[in-house]
């Protein structure tokens, strides 16, 4: 069980928030590569990134297929404990290591928890999971998932909702898991639209202003060619997004690869200081249990994850005045070809940027650039050599300077 609390603080005042009902929304996007999500036009996910926290530098520590991966995400333990090693779910050990929703309900029995999935085994082959409803729709039927989610979010008694989309994985298997594949990118953008509809339904809850929601969006694995299940970077490198009513915007960086149980090189010590899929469940439990006598890291549960909620956060960089552009996030760093920056430009102010070397010489510059949406700007930096650089972004009267490197 991880004991170190790291990452970022989600709440600015737990005392003020203690009276608000705590609720969790988890959205799963099956089979979405990190680099493909970066290149896709995903305004709804980008809006959550802009106002929340994220990492594009996490590493899968288990078996890169759906059954084991979603079991780790939902149980808070890796496959040597939950026992699922394939999509058949044979060998599962959910009685000893159940879904986090089971732990949540054991402590708070009045919670109302609902799962909506497009892949039937996630419902049919999982037991001891605590769901009050397990809703199945057909494979690839994202609109049906949205409709079911809208119905559930209209219920004021809803406390936990998990919505799973498999369109991206289906497209990857049929046409290729590749950011250069237009069909794969289109599938990601389609699911982003579904997510936007779900977030709208969440915000339209009659009592939303008096509720404290945490939203977690993640994938289970990447892919290579038309498959996955191996240990390449394209399959193991994954991402998360976290948002909610009371979060501090932050990018999780400098993440090291702790290796994989699947190939026998897992470094447990290194894993303690890096994000893992098992953290999703523990973060959800920590949020639900705040203000109660329940312990989200109950030693008897023997969880492998840790919570993000009580972690450290960075203050605004020194030297930036009150007109500075805040909450700018940058990925990947180091970069190879495309450098993506996320920030709020909902007022559609003029945007320009300059890239400098460490001697202050201007290498790239563009006025009045076009953003992909109100939050996302892609810069072509492939002409830069390996080394360290500064990028200055001007948005109206606001600006920010950040350091990045090329590899």
Describe it for me?
This protein is an alpha/beta fold and 407 residues long. It folds into 2 domains: 14-301, Alkaline Phosphatase, subunit A (3-Layer(aba) Sandwich); 329-406, Sandwich (Immunoglobulin-like). Helices cover 26% and strands 22% of the residues. It is built from 13 helices and 15 strands. It has helices at residues 14-17, 34-39, 43-51, 66-75, 79-82, 100-107, 121-124, 142-153, 167-175, 182-203, 233-236, 268-271, 279-289; strands spanning 22-29, 53-59, 113-117, 133-136, 160-165, 212-218, 237-244, 250-251, 329-331, 338-342, 351-357, 362-366, 376-380, 387-395, 398-406. The chain has an 8-stranded mixed beta sheet with strand order 4-3-5-1-6-7-2-8, with helices on both faces. A 4-stranded antiparallel beta sheet has the order 12-11-14-15, with no helix packed on it. A 3-stranded antiparallel beta sheet has the order 9-10-13, covered by helices on one side. A hairpin with a 6-residue loop joins strand 9 (329-331) and strand 10. The longest helix is centred in the middle third of the chain and has 22 residues, at 182-203.
The total of helices stands at 13
CATH fold name of the largest domain, please? Alkaline Phosphatase, subunit A
Number of strands: 15
Distance between the termini: 35 Å
List low-confidence stretches: 1-18, 310-323
CATH superfamily of the largest domain: Alkaline Phosphatase, subunit A
Quickly give the structural class.
Answer: alpha/beta
CATH class of the largest domain, please?
Answer: Alpha Beta
What's the overall geometry? globular
């Amino acid at each position: 069980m991880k004991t170190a609390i790291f990452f970022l603080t989600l709440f600015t005042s737990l005392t003020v928030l203690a009276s608000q009902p705590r609720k969790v929304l988890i959205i799963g996007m099956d089979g979405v590569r990190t680099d493909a999500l970066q290149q896709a036009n995903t305004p709804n996910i980008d809006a959550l990134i802009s106002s929340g926290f994220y990492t594009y530098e996490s590493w899968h520590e288990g078996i890169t297929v759906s059954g084991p991966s979603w079991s780790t995400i939902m149980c808070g333990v890796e496959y040597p404990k939950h026992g699922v090693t394939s999509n058949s779910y044979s060998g599962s050990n959910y009685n000893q290591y159940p879904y986090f929703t089971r732990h949540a309900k054991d402590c708070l029995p009045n919670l109302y928890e609902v799962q909506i999935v497009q892949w039937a085994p996630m419902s049919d082959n999982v037991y001891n999971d605590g769901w009050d409803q397990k809703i199945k729709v057909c494979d690839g039927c994202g609109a049906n998932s949205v409709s079911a989610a809208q119905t559930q979010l209209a219920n004021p008694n809803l406390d936990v909702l998990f919505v799973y989309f498999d369109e991206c994985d289906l497209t990857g298997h049929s046409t290729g898991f590749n950011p250069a594949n237009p069909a794969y990118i289109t599938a990601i953008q389609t699911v982003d639209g579904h997510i936007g509809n779900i977030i709208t339904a969440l915000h339209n809850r009659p009592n939303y202003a008096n509720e404290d929601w945490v939203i977690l969006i993640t994938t289970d694995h990447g892919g290579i060619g038309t498959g996955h299940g191996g240990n390449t970077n394209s399959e193991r490198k994954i991402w998360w997004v976290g948002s909610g009513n009371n979060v501090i915007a932050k990018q999780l960086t400098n993440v090291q690869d702790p290796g994989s149980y699947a190939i026998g090189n897992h470094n447990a010590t290194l894993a303690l200081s890096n994000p893992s899929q098992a953290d999703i469940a523990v973060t959800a439990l920590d949020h639900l249990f705040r203000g109660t006598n329940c312990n989200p890291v109950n030693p008897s549960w023997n969880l492998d994850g840790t919570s993000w909620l009580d972690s450290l956060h960075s203050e605004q960089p020194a030297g930036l005045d009150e007109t500075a552009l805040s909450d700018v996030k940058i990925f990947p760093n180091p970069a190879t070809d495309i450098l993506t920056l996320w920030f709020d430009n909902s007022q559609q102010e003029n945007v320009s940027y300059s890239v400098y070397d460490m001697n202050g010489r201007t290498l790239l510059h563009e006025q009045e650039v076009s953003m992909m949406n109100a939050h996302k700007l892609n810069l072509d930096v492939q002409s830069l050599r390996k080394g360290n650089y500064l990028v200055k972004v001007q948005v109206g009267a606001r600006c920010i300077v950040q350091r990045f490197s090329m590899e």
